[in-house]
Amino acid sequence: MEAVTVAWTAAGVGMALVYWFVWVMGAAEVKGKRAVDLKMGSITNDKVKDKYTQYWSFFRRPKETATTEASAEKVPAFVDTFYNLVTDIYEWGWGQSFHFSPSLPGRSHREATRVHEERVSDLLGAKPGHRILDVGCGVGGPMRAIAAHSGSHVVGITINEYQVNRARAHNRKAGLDSRCEVVCGNFLSMPFADGSFDGAYSIEATCHAPRLQDVYGEVYRVLKPGGLYVSYEWVTTSIYRADNPEHVEAIHGIERGDALPGLRRQDEIASMAKEVGFEVLKELDLALPPALPWWTRLKMGRLAYWRNSLVVRVLTVLRVAPKGVCEVHEMLYETAQHLTRGGETGIFTPMHMVLLRKPAAAQSK
Ligand SMILES: C=C(CC[C@@H](C)[C@H]1CC[C@H]2C3=CC[C@H]4[C@H](C)[C@@H](O)CC[C@]4(C)[C@H]3CC[C@]12C)C(C)C
Ligand SMILES: C[S@@+](CC[C@H](N)C(=O)[O-])C[C@H]1O[C@@H](n2cnc3c(N)ncnc32)[C@H](O)[C@@H]1O
Question: How far does the centroid of ligand 1 lie from the alpha carbon of residue 332, in Å?
């Protein structure tokens, strides 16, 4: 074969491989976001690496970020940076719901996710005519599931403007924009009137608050008297031992890679809720048996992670994705290992559920 023919064949095969990785294999886990559309939120391409470095040095010592007042004040801004860096990667590799769910035998991840979200709606007794608040709404996967399931009107709040735009676009596409509203703001001081919601929920979001009482206090304020609030909390369990280096490594890994100012203990949540005035109606770790592991989805994806790293690398070399994406992707990969370890050892759960009520006789706060 002539050299020219060999060169053309090699080029053709190379192009086909790139196409296969990026457009076919690299397509979203839940169709929607494609690898070629990876952006870093509202961060311009030239700033991605710097922003990532700043993020990483801030969350390197998770407990300190929560305990010193000056650092705690900076947490929301760094959480915003974090979501600029990860939102598209999450959507591409996980879907529109940024949380875990117990696996369900014979059912897809998508179905398990929906069931976990509808559980919130059922606990709240959400129905048509209700105005429900989604505290830390991401790009709105849960909001759309809950609005569709209950017929209620859902208002979501997120600190990240890029997510607001993504969520609004998804709401329009799903034909739910008349019942799903999205607001950009800080859940530690929400732009809503006292007593303006019938119910509220937060799914794996309040773990970003340096003090849980601050966000719970805000939810209490905006709820009507008698209103219910359901939260799925990220916590360490009673199995966690602070003198076990392996436990500490896993928990620090989870905190660093998920923008958390220090995980709370499972047995602290109810008393923090009571501190701001809530009645605790139910408390249950939804990860406990008979629930099936929530971390299987993370574990089963090793091949997918390898493929995704390659896609991200190729896209960076081709300058389709900004520099810094590889580092962010690598950080997420490591975080996935720590989360899996946390699940397997039982020292951590991302779904400690609390059902709270603002007393019917409560005055506006
Ligand atoms: C509640 C939070 C987020 C929880 C999860 C939705 C995310 C936690 C870790 C994320 C991921 C880890 C590995 C990524 C992988 C390397 C990449 O190729 C594709 C995306 C991942 C699977 C990504 C997806 C979302 C998570 C599972 C926190 C932030 C409070
Ligand atoms: C892991 S995501 C979960 C999103 C959504 N609940 C879901 O399950 O898809 C956490 C969300 O909390 C939001 N968040 C974190 N800190 C916040 C703050 N101080 N104010 C408002 N939103 C915040 C993030 O922007 C993000 O949308």
Answer: 6
